[in-house]
Design brief:
186 residues, alpha+beta, five-stranded antiparallel sheet, two-stranded parallel sheet
Length: 186
Amino acid sequence: TAQVSDCLRLCSQFAVPVVTRGGNTGLCGAATPDASPNNIILSLDRMNRVRSIDTIANTLVADAGCILGNLRRTAQEQDRLLPLSLAAEDSSQIGGNVATNAGGVNVVRYGMARELVLGIEAVLPDGEIFNGLQTLRKDNTGYDLKQLFIGSEGTLGVITGVALRLHAPTHVRSVVLAAVESEQQA
């Protein structure tokens, strides 16, 4: 985070555009530099450490460069569920998932990424570090600034760490197939 801060501070000072690159799984082109020859591509690949996992409070704190699939497996090893699941989960990074407010296949039951984020650490464009990496579920003290970063596509800063809510796994699954002839019959 300190290195990201130093990088953004220098780029801000010299008006150098920064493109944050995560897992390169997005399809909107946000990780593609423009035609300017001065762009800096900031990779978070080395920020891939699980900082903590708490099976009592059901929380996981990780660097933004952690691969989503690895975080899901880490939670599963502790008999916990990180419900965010995407087709690109074995290459997408959690920072990008949060920055885009990813949904995934479990969105109906567990909500978008926003519903899973308890806290965020981010670096603002001028290099200032926002440390909102709390794991407290009920926090009604002032503004909930982390919500501004979730879904912001990196326009407000670079997410460097996230605190996530885990769930108890569901060990039983039922699948139902219902065939109907029309919408009215359904």
